């Protein structure tokens, strides 16, 4: 079919059995578009002197190519994956998993009408965020709280409501950038507050803050350096001392904590991180933190602390633009309620359950899965000790023990193996270490589903042969 005039028409391709089944699956418009795209590509190739398909089933050929393109497009987008990266709260893989109670609350909120802004006792309009805010106040001991879309929103709202048109003092050692898009100086500019930097990258002293305070100062901001540490010759002003400086000057101290740690996590093997309660006890007037980092809930942001300041934030026009939808609000309430039983968190909250898994348990799981992976790859697979990390800009330098399956892929084949794993029905995301793919099992949430699809590695991806 080197002759362009013998190319099938769009309708011919649509009429083939493959074309018909594509319409049933993807709809008329998308199928037609995909076939037209394939025909355009084929026309280009023929003009370039490449051979085309045999004339007898050209329509079918084009329909099948369109089907492959449509299937490929369907694979992109947000799909379930196995997170075997060894990073528990992986921002690219969706951070915290919902607790079962949160999943139930969210699905109910999706399927049924909800007393979202309705007071069931009084039978009239109620306050949308009130139950979640009451729970935050109850758990943290804060006077009041406000919930918004995420922690970036929380910081933006606090600065807009309390410091617009005036100065915000921040240490030079705390001007963070998170994930490229959250840069503290830019957030400040968006909120309309002027950044007053104090100290140096490695050392900021109480006198630096005191000297910067003037008639234009609206507040002092302390920012948790979530994704890096300044080490060596360093000084920072601790929360309690900074609170005293702010109080003496009659200014609010806002502490952006990043991760919302509501309980001491060290009993589950995670290094200690300052809790929301501790920051408030140190004298912060407001704290801000995320819902989907160490707190283990849906994406959300919190502002907690002094009632007059929280109310000023909640009354700002931006609050409406940053509010949570009903599904996340329902999930958030359910998650926060779990914190009433901190002793049960390792059962009820997936993030904490993941931290709480013992090395012995992970090693047994690894030994159990090893023969299946080895058989699928036709290669030796080893059980190795590794280091997992929290992720999401929490405890950047801390690692904790974990166990992984290590599949050697010598001769530059590690990329190919990793790619094949990503093309499984439930894509497996591991990490490449030298000439091997390492699959950290700490976050493996469904070992049987993982095992069940391994054999497809040999059938759909025979190129993976590593022998
Ligand atoms: C993560 C983080 C943020 C941003 O929080 P999101 O919930 O991702 O918007 C802001 N500040 C600090 C210190 C953080 O660690």
UniProtKB/TrEMBL annotation:
Its cofactor is pyridoxal 5'-phosphate. One of its GO terms (molecular function) is L-seryl-tRNA(Sec) selenium transferase activity. InterPro entries: PyrdxlP-dep_Trfase, PyrdxlP-dep_Trfase_major, SelA-like, SelA_trans, SelA_trans_N_dom. Keywords: Cytoplasm, Protein biosynthesis, Pyridoxal phosphate, Selenium, Transferase. It catalyses: L-seryl-tRNA(Sec) + selenophosphate + H(+) = L-selenocysteinyl-tRNA(Sec) + phosphate. Its main location: cytoplasm. GO terms for biological process: conversion of seryl-tRNAsec to selenocys-tRNAsec; selenocysteine incorporation. Pfam families: Se-cys_synth_N, SelA. Pathway: Aminoacyl-tRNA biosynthesis; selenocysteinyl-tRNA(Sec) biosynthesis; selenocysteinyl-tRNA(Sec) from L-seryl-tRNA(Sec) (bacterial route): step 1/1. GO terms for cellular component: cytoplasm. It is found in: Cytoplasm. NCBIfam families: selA (TIGR00474). Converts seryl-tRNA(Sec) to selenocysteinyl-tRNA(Sec) required for selenoprotein biosynthesis. This is L-seryl-tRNA(Sec) selenium transferase. The gene is selA.
